[in-house]
Amino acid sequence: MKVRTSVDLEVFPPFVGFPKEGLAFLRNLKKNNNREWFASHKDTYLEAVKLPMQSLISTLQGSMAKYAPEFEFNPRRSIFRINRDTRFSKNKDPYKTSIAAVFHPKGSWQESSGYYLHVEPPEIYVGGGIYMPDSAQLKKIRSSIAEHSEEFLSIVTARSFKSQFGELEGSKLSRNPIGFPKDHPMIEWLKYKQFYCGVTWGVGECTTPKFADKVVGLYRELIPFVRFFNRALKR
């Protein structure tokens, strides 16, 4: 249970893993994605899905403060709402069938590169980078890649990075971007429209306390990658 301290800060229980009841809830939600079913199972969502995620984020907050103190790991604000915005979507299912969170530098929610965590049985996705940069952001990122090519390559071609993540996952242009010749030495990197990478694990990985350490280890590997883009965006 959550308790309040004398300074009105919430303290969450230690992360012990996502319980089977919570993962079963997410599986069943795919089959029963309607408001009536969710309302009758809301307590399970709050106690076995949302609270474990908040406990995980609280644990990540303490660990990542040592390595990337500029990032916000907030058990309240970092979690995506489970309600879907169906106003402009053909899919009118009212709920997402996952529990997910995103972590950005403090004070710059949508204007930065960050970390991501997504639990949706049968898989987990953990990664980082910038998913949907706008045209102004892309211009800054591409300029930084061109101007600081050695630094960028030292990050994305490092043996540990390649071993963990392989290639970037973002979509690419079919032609060279405006302002860069097709024979530019970094042209294949400059074609990217998204700059992110991550790993997919089986959902069983998140059922023990060791999952938090595993996420921290992956996020630490991504620190140079994530910070490269954040420096570019501040230009």
Could you explain the architecture of this structure?
This protein is an alpha+beta fold and 235 residues long. The chain has one domain (3-233): 2-Layer Sandwich (BirA Bifunctional Protein, domain 2). It is 41% helix and 14% strand. The protein has helices spanning 20-31, 35-40, 42-64, 135-147, 149-156, 159-165, 187-190, 210-233; strands at 3-4, 10-11, 99-103, 114-120, 123-130, 195-202. The strands form two sheets. Strands 3-4-5-6 form a four-stranded antiparallel β-sheet. Strands 1-2 form a two-stranded antiparallel ribbon. Helix 1 (20-31) packs across helix 3 (42-64) and helix 3 (42-64) crosses helix 8 (210-233). The longest helix has 24 residues, at 210-233. The radius of gyration is 19 Å and the shape is globular.
Please give the domain count.
1
The secondary-structure element order is EEHHHEEEHHHHEH
How far apart the termini lie comes to 44 Å
Biggest sheet, spatial arrangement of strands:
3-4-5-6
SSE blueprint:
Blueprint: E1 3-4, E2 10-11, H1 20-31, H2 35-40, H3 42-64, E3 99-103, E4 114-120, E5 123-130, H4 135-147, H5 149-156, H6 159-165, H7 187-190, E6 195-202, H8 210-233
Antiparallel strand pairs: 1-2, 3-4, 4-5, 5-6
Short summary of the structure?
By secondary structure, the protein is an alpha+beta fold. It has 8 helices and 6 strands; from the N terminus they run E-E-H-H-H-E-E-E-H-H-H-H-E-H.
